[in-house]
UniProtKB/TrEMBL annotation:
Organism taxonomic ancestry: Bacteria, Pseudomonadati, Pseudomonadota, Gammaproteobacteria, Pseudomonadales
UniProt xrefs under Pfam families: DUF1835
Protein name, UniProt field: DUF1835 domain-containing protein
Domain DUF1835 per the UniProt entry, residue ranges: 96-201
Amino acid sequence: MSAQHTIRHGRFNLEQQRKRAKDLLKAINRQEPEALARVVRHIPPREQPLKLADAQWVIARECGFSSWPRLKAHIDALDFASRHAGLHGDQDARTLHIRCGSDIQHSLKVAGFSGDFLEFSDPFCIGPVPASDDQTLIQQRAAFLASAFDLKPADSLARLRQAYSTLERLDEYERLVLWFEHDSYDQLILAYLLHRLHHEPPKARIELIAVDSIPGVERFIGIGQLAPDLLAWLWPQRQPVSTELLRLGSQAWAAISADTPHALTELIATGTPALPMMGRALHRHLRELPARNTGLSLSESQILQIVAEHGPLPVGKAYAHLMAEREPLPYLGDLMYWWLIQPLLNAAEPLLAIVADAEANWPQRQLALTATGQRVLAGQINWLSLPHSERWVGGIRIVPGQPNWCLSCDLMPRAERR
């Protein structure tokens, strides 16, 4: 097995890793170039013959661990958590697990958890999030989601009302556990939930499992990619939600829903010490404001760059490139991505074009950059100077042809009216 061996779901098998080490040692003894190249990445050249312990060291390093004992200890911890989730899980208190999707609902059951589950998945990272009362917010969000994802308005509204209404019945529980990762999709939803819990404190104790990396997972995108064993392993790592974190949630929600970026930039500058990953997610969210030189959001710019470098290519492959290579903090689901590129495809002067397989399912349609797209990407034309549909970054409305908040710097964005 090559150095490209990766574990996406976080689950390791010790016997499999031992076999990999033995196979690597055999390949080294046969002087296979690939095996020798793998070794020199981690062990300086030496005259003494390599031993099994050296091959195990290489395997551990390839899996993301500092040593073989560290890899073995992690596997032992996963095995222990898997065996004992039924004894040390959520059975000691009436529990509600809250997650911004249904992706771990089944895995929690498989891992031995028995509490109730709430999917609260209003994607505040896209569409309008103006400062308003909850009932107005629900109406506005439902209308946006129905339009963006071709839903029946009544169904969209009913689904949101069901999720939001559950937040009014939290006193039925003794413990609330929030399961969230580090991207802006998760963290903006978490900010709203913390804000609600701050202003309407439930009787239940509130705990948080916040994850931005998993040992051995090179490209961690979300909790939903993890095996059930990993959920059992994460369970003992949950932390009580502090007053400082609840306050941060309210500050973040006010900044997200504001119609200027000032509060966001100020909050980001603090580093959000109560939960640093929230500050990083807010920074990523802010970069969806248009860049001053091109008028493109970071997501739009990345997609155009991918198509410029690899196109024409299928729409789905462009999405795969975005998630696997380009996006610094992956947050877009596939349908959100397809929604996001519609203005780029359907403007009077589009930046992207479907050039083949137009009748196929959208992931198979061939995508190419137009001449206008090339000029916008190069900064020769500003996207905001061309007519296309408006969009929102939280509470900030972006309207082509009008003065808009733009970013003048990528590293620590400074927003200004343009």
